[in-house]
Amino acid sequence: MSDLLPLFPLDLVLFPETPIPLHIFEPRYKEMVGECLREKRTFGILRSNGQKIAQAGCTAEIIDLLRTYPDGRMDILTMGQRRFSVLEINDERSFFRGSIEYFEDEPGTAATSDLKQSTLDMHAELEKLASLDALRFDPDNPYVSFQLAAQLPVDLDFKQALLEMRSEEERLRVLLDYYAKIIPKLQAMRFGKNRSEGNGWVH
């Protein structure tokens, strides 16, 4: 059953084409990652909150082994690749493996350039208000929504829902709705802070 995908349940959501560093310290995952490094294989990251494991995740390619420790621990840098659904879990080894099925966006669900630009503009405004690191985004990327969502300080339920959506247009509209709700709140907080610093009180 060598076609089974090694699975790594974590309390995070990995998106395609987004990087994430990982510290590998559990013996079973040191074994798993070591095997993936030797065989140049990917593994799958599934969101887990300690009680429940998501049925959809994203494969992770190890793009750099950053550091190894005398006890076998590792720091690695991974890059999200393809989304998948778990069909069946196999627990014959120390780590989970899964029979999986890859999925992509449905045909005809690409976003228009205007929708992409509107979302990028709103995200840039959020970056300024929330003091986020300014990132460069390629508007021609068909999955720019994932790049945007990876930077957002939002709960994992929100990110998991975006990961499972099969429409870039839908994901961008969900993000626009989020920006439309959070940006006015941040603007009000900044206005209040400025007023407070200016005269010591706010109406």
What does this structure look like?
With 203 residues, the protein is α+β, with helices and mostly antiparallel strands. The chain is globular, with a radius of gyration of 20 Å. The longest helix is centred in the C-terminal third of the chain and has 32 residues. It starts with a strand and ends with a helix. The protein has a 5-stranded mixed barrel.
What does the secondary structure layout of this molecule look like, with pairings?
Layout: E1 5-10, E2 19-24, H1 27-39, E3 43-48, E4 53-68, E5 74-90, E6 97-102, H2 113-130, H3 144-151, H4 156-164, H5 168-199
Parallel strand pairs: 1-3
Antiparallel strand pairs: 1-6, 2-5, 3-4, 4-5, 5-6
Helix pairs in contact: 2-5, 3-5
Shape: globular
Helix content range: 25-40%
How many individual β-strands? Answer: 6
Which parts are unreliable, with pLDDT below 50 for 5 consecutive residues or more? 198-203
Mean pLDDT: 90
Tell me the major beta sheet.
5 strands, mixed, barrel
Secondary structure tally, helices = 5
Quick recap:
The protein is 39% helix and 28% strand.
